[in-house]
Structure to design on (291 residues):
């Protein structure tokens, strides 16, 4: 069932909602309608839409339960496998529903967990059902190694080791360049303005203007080595959560040509990560006392 599912955030109509599609089965649809009585079928999207800010999280939980139906004994097998050969790690906890994983943030960790069936983020920790224990074991070495590498103490050690090196100078230049909020864009293939796009150096951004000023290759060769010479400067900003929610994802991964171009339409995974970051950013801003 997991290979046939399509889940996406859906803010096209201005509300908070998510959509899910799966192969038709009368009993599966009945269970879905019982779990989501406000869900509606969309012929245009060929998917069920579920309203609510927590819709995607609730759908993820439902999918995890549905996944365990594929093998009624899968959770019991996974629980027994863990009891026989447990993963001993400060990043892993266990409760009646499965495993809880809490690590420092890392793109690599997120990518690894996305490869574990039915792993989901609940807003505070990653949750993995017992049924996915074997898959979790396959990815755990990489997850734990990256988590240790991202601990604050390890980050400080690496920062100390880089002091005075060419790597540190380049890092400072890259940080200064980011503060200028500019990006070299292909003069003959400019991105759409005022719409979130994905880029290699800055993730998902919104290009607000193209200045027309030609980029001097020698000034940025070490910061943008993958970009060709025919570039003009564009200004950019970080997109707001509302803009990210209303952005419809690309159904295809970016091609090599699009990556060389320097921008592409974001995929659902890229948008989900950007939305999580934007939500956290807006919560931090809301919690700050007024000046």
């Amino acid at each position: 069932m997991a290979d046939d599912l399509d889940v996406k955030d859906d803010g096209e109509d201005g509300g908070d909602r998510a959509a899910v599609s799966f192969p038709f089965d009368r009993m599966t649809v009945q269970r879905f309608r019982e779990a989501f009585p406000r869900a509606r079928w969309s012929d245009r999207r060929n998917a069920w839409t579920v309203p609510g800010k927590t819709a995607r999280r609730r759908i993820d939980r439902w999918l995890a339960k549905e996944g365990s139906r594929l093998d009624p004994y899968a959770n019991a097998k996974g629980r027994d496998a863990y009891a026989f050969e447990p993963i001993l790690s400060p990043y892993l906890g266990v409760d009646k529903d499965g495993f809880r994983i809490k690590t420092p943030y890392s793109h690599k960790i997120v990518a690894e967990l996305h490869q574990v069936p039915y792993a989901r983020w609940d807003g505070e920790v990653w949750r993995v059902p017992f049924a996915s224990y074997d898959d979790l074991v396959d990815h755990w070495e990489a997850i734990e190694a990256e988590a240790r590498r991202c601990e604050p103490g390890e980050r400080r050690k690496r920062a100390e080791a880089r002091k005075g090196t060419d790597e540190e100078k380049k890092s400072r230049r890259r940080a200064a360049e980011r503060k200028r909020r500019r990006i070299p864009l292909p003069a003959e293939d400019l991105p759409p303005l005022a719409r979130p796009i994905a880029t290699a150096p800055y993730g998902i951004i919104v290009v607000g203007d193209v200045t027309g000023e030609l980029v001097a290759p020698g000034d940025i060769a070490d910061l943008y080595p993958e970009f060709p010479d025919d570039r003009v400067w564009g200004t950019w900003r970080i997109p707001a959560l509302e803009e990210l929610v209303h952005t419809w994802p690309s159904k295809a991964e970016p091609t090599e040509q699009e990556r060389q171009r320097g921008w592409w339409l974001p995929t659902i995974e890229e948008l989900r990560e950007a939305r999580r970051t934007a939500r956290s950013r807006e919560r931090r801003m809301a919690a700050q006392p007024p000046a």
User: Anything to note?
Assistant: Residues 2-15 have pLDDT under 50 and may be disordered. Residues 182-287 form one domain.
